[in-house]
Amino acid sequence: MTGVVSTALSSLSLAANRIATAANVIGTLVVLGLVAVVNFDVVARGAFNMPFRGAIEVVQFSMVLIVFFQLPDVVRSNRLTRSDGFLILLGLTRPRLAGVIRRLIDLLSCVIMVLITVALWPEFVEMWHTNDYFGIPGVFTAPWWPIKLTIVCSAALCAVLFAIKSLGIEPDASAISNKSAKGRQE
Amino acid sequence: MSPVEIGTVSVLAIVALIYLGVYIPIALTVVSFVSIWLMRDNFDLAMNLLKIAVGDSVMEYTFATVPLFTFMGLIVSKAGLGNDIYEVMSSGFRRVKGGIGMATVGANAVFAAVTGSSIASASVFAKVSVPQMLHYGYNPRFAVGVVAGSSVLGMIIPPSAMLIIYSFVAEQSVGEMFLAGVVPGLMLAVAYVASIWTMGKFWPSFVGGRPADGYEWLSWSEIASKTLPTLSLIFIVLGGIYTGWMTPVEAGAAGSLAGLLIAMLRGRMSLKGFWEALIETGHISAAILFLITAASIYSRMLGLAGLPNELSDMLVGNDYGFVTIMVVYILLMLVLGTLLDTASIILIVVPLFLPLIEPMGLSLVWFGIITVVGAEIGLLTPPLGISCFVIKATLNDSRISLKDVFMGALPFAAVMLIVLILLIRFPALSLAILN
Amino acid sequence: QETIRAVVIDGYPARALWVKEFSEFFIPEVDKRLAETGNYKMDWQESYGGAIVKPKGVLEGIQLGLGDIGIVTTIFHSSKLPSQALAAVTPFVAPDARVVAKAVDEIAQEFPAMQNEFDKQNQVYLATGVVLDSYQVFSSQPIASPKDLDGTKVAGAGMNLRYLEGLNNAAGVRGGLTDFYNMVQTGLVGSAMLWPEAAATFKIAEVAPYMLKVDFGAVNSKTVTVNKDYWNKLPDEVKTVLREVAVEYRDHIAEISMDRAREALLKYMDAGGSIVEVDDLARAEWAEAMPDIAAEWAAGLDSKGQDGSGMLKAYLAKLEAGGYSGVRDWSAGLSN
Ligand code: NA
Ligand code: NA
């Protein structure tokens, strides 16, 4: 790999990692918002006879935000559910083979994320144009497109992060924190 | 290929990929995607399956219970409620042989009612009670075994992420599943205490230990200040759900808020700890819900292949007995339990067996309890036993190997199996509380 | 003889009324008619109860070809299928599933809007299903008239929450059918809106023994549709049979729903429930105090170039011909 390409990839890697971390912060705030909204509804309904009529839609909406804003950071910090006992054992005797398998797995994961992105993109475009909503007209409605957009962006970012892992590119600035995350996991 | 062949091959492929180390949701998605593509010779249909499953499976109102109860569990762990309950329990059990072990089980049972995961229980009590037991000369294997064994209470006594997952797969009410888990959870706790007493009597070398001397009786006011916060949380959450005042989602939110207030009032919550709990909540929720999404792709693939229809026909044609099906079911869960985590086991086996169970007129709530208890045995068995891993990682003590944790947990896994058989034999144990 | 494979989907379980009748009426009836000529034979795969899609996912499932034939629950899709709300926006007219089902179905044939909406979702409309006779109000406290609901909390779902806007300070609390029993029992709400059959199924009489017979009316909520690509490949003979049987299925489930409703009311009274009749004057007062949801609905369709106003008038005329005229003229507020 030439120096220029390697620097470019490394910056891309750094950018992807930073975006994942930032999305994680937003998703985290949504968790707090969820606690607040549901409690607000309980109190408003119980004490003031004024239930928040959009509570269900807002909860559904925030579930999408929580899951898909956090997913890239889950991927980044190696916390996606897996059972890597075999890889660890193999790594003791055949470290190179184990490394190759890990990269192939990340490649496979990247392919799946690309497929999800490709599958959901037309959905987003359609919702954007038709302005489709969910909920009950006159009671509470919310548009679909932000949901589809969140999923598309999240899957795309996960695809990039898996590609980075598969290629074995370390993001230059956050390389250290990333390693410590890996160490904790294994 | 017939639907049953597709089902069998896909399960084998998924298990092989997972064993190889492929991320579990990715393994489920890949196999489902390829199965549809090959089965119908239609790439677009496979893409459409992804589209519909990823697009709408997270949009479920009850899923909000996952982040809410996770957050509540993390907050109360950080606030030290687990330690408090443990201190009260150990002051009660201190004179008995194996007393600290019993105290650990009791504290776990209470703590389980305010946390939704076994991981939280395992890490809290590995830190709190293992050092105590080692200090009083308990057998290290027994010490870690007790913590591992009783950590599963976290997922059986409500609230529980696993009961939530099951209720989603089997389309049962989360509230009913929670209530059905109360008696089996308490029963398991009692069975653990009884078996510790029995082991102390007939196999004292496995337990080890000497009566604790350093303890003083806690005063009533100390007991009150250490138990009331937890009890009030249990009152809010389970009381709210049981009386119907709140949906499980609302109970989770109210419990989170109350837990937060308690932690702040007791000055045990730093801004940093609070933020960490939020981040952790997001990570856990995203990982679990992405797994559920992937599993829904898999179960829809089985549906498209026509497997549920084929299984029902087989059942009608062959007239398998209840006992046969249950034996096969438990064996399958135990085998999968060696490799897979609880959520994956539930998500893989439940769609396979629902079409067999439902026509037999059996309660799906009861079946859920059986499933969760059966799948949780896998938390304690090698080579992959999450609770054991967590304990090993939390202790970080070179004197205790992973093998010790598994060996110590084995008797408790056996007790679980016995309790599971009782639960299968007497469905009223799970269902009586609902009527 | 040619064999044609058909995957039938619904997210509701096989025991649900309309799903059960699809298995036990629709499918055998189609098989029987095809057997008369013997040219074609259907190979049915019935996948219900979340095997392939959830209740909200049927529309998309048929659109994407995960199922060939499906029963779409239209109330979930106000945005994609706005014209399907026709019966929901015209309360206090016809508490008769048979009349409403026939009228909505005829509107679907006479006006292009409903079929176009399904066509956009890549599916072909076959028939409308109505599975309930009328929403009523079930209360835990004795109530004599709708006035007694003023200032209370009432549980409901979907469009009927808007009916409460015709009462003074009544708060609508959203919930699912399965939650209503608990919500009333704990006093979270004073009453709940549901139909008699559901009230019997969930033993509402135990907690809400006072039924206010407001007769909001029957509402269409189920539509049988077929994936368009699949439909285009079907032989004409099969298409004809499917269309004919769909109409019979429509009348068949409406008939059963009415029988069930009658039995359910008897059951309700056996279980200690009492039914309070509401006179037309009180119903009219409530209806008049409601916002003009029918005109809102028609205007929404008109603005999209669909003849919402025409559909509304034609629909009300059909109900009138069927013997039902409402306490409020929902076409009075139309701008054209
Ligand atoms: Na729990
Ligand atoms: Na295991």
UniProtKB/TrEMBL annotation, chain A:
All copies of domain Tripartite ATP-independent periplasmic transporters DctQ component, residue ranges: 34-164
Alphabetical list of InterPro entries matching this protein: DctQ
Domain of life: Bacteria
General function of this protein: Part of the tripartite ATP-independent periplasmic (TRAP) transport system.
UniProt similarity note: Belongs to the TRAP transporter small permease family.
Complexes and interactors: The complex comprises the extracytoplasmic solute receptor protein and the two transmembrane proteins.
Protein name: TRAP transporter small permease protein
Species in which this protein is naturally found: Roseibium polysiphoniae
UniProtKB/TrEMBL annotation, chain B:
Pfam families attached to this UniProt entry: DctM
Keywords of the record: Cell inner membrane, Cell membrane, Membrane, Transmembrane, Transmembrane helix, Transport
Membrane topology: Multi-pass membrane protein
Membrane-spanning residues: 12-38, 58-77, 98-122, 142-166, 178-197, 245-265, 277-299, 320-353, 365-391, 412-434
Protein's cellular compartments: Cell inner membrane
Stored InterPro entries: DctM, TRAP_DctM
Residue ranges occupied by any TRAP C4-dicarboxylate transport system permease DctM subunit domain in the UniProt entry: 12-429
This protein's record includes keyword Cell inner membrane: yes
Coiled-coil regions listed: none
Function comment: Part of the tripartite ATP-independent periplasmic (TRAP) transport system.
Family: Belongs to the TRAP transporter large permease family.
Oligomeric form and interacting partners: The complex comprises the extracytoplasmic solute receptor protein and the two transmembrane proteins.
Full protein name: TRAP transporter large permease protein
